[in-house]
């Protein structure tokens, strides 16, 4: 039995986004319990040339929605990057999960060879077959940003563990 493109994408993104939302809630509670402004965590980064927590979450959401919409052959909606609180970030995650929920297996399965064209006509233009795009570009990038968000919070003392990252199974 082969793994479908839908099964390898939508449920994986939705599950991990839910886990990220939960660990963002723990981070917000950590800031409140320790009486410091949540913005300290939202703007925290692991190194000066890396994205801050807020941007890591935004980019993770963008990879999830962009990947699934492209695999389904649909236009990728743009979300404004205007989140300034944990509640805003969780709302963005919820919006992303809901968007993914509009896609069914029939819209994504069979997209293994679909040509995915990123930044057409620019110096950064890339072309992928659907399966390569999902497995070797999108999923690694998505998990990089989710992991970095998790690590920013761990680095700042938020009590998170592997179960928080993995989410409820």
Low-pLDDT regions: none
Helix content: 55-70%
Query: What shape does the CA trace take?
Result: globular
CATH architecture identity: Up-down Bundle
Bin the strand percentage: under 5%
The mean pLDDT is 96
CATH topology: Four Helix Bundle (Hemerythrin (Met), subunit A)
Question: From the alpha-carbon coordinates, what is the Rg to the nearest angstrom?
Answer: 17 Å
How large is the count of helical segments? 7
Number of strands: 2
Distance between the termini: 22 Å
Structural class: mainly alpha
Describe this structure in words.
This protein has a single domain, classed as dinb family like domain (Four Helix Bundle (Hemerythrin (Met), subunit A), Up-down Bundle), CATH 1.20.120.450. Helix content is 57%, strand content 5%. It has helices spanning 10-33, 39-42, 53-71, 86-100, 105-108, 130-155, 162-166, and strands at 115-118, 126-129. Strands 1-2 form a two-stranded antiparallel ribbon. The chain is globular, with a radius of gyration of 17 Å. The chain starts with 9 loop residues before the first helix and ends with a helix. The model has no long low-confidence stretch (mean pLDDT 96).
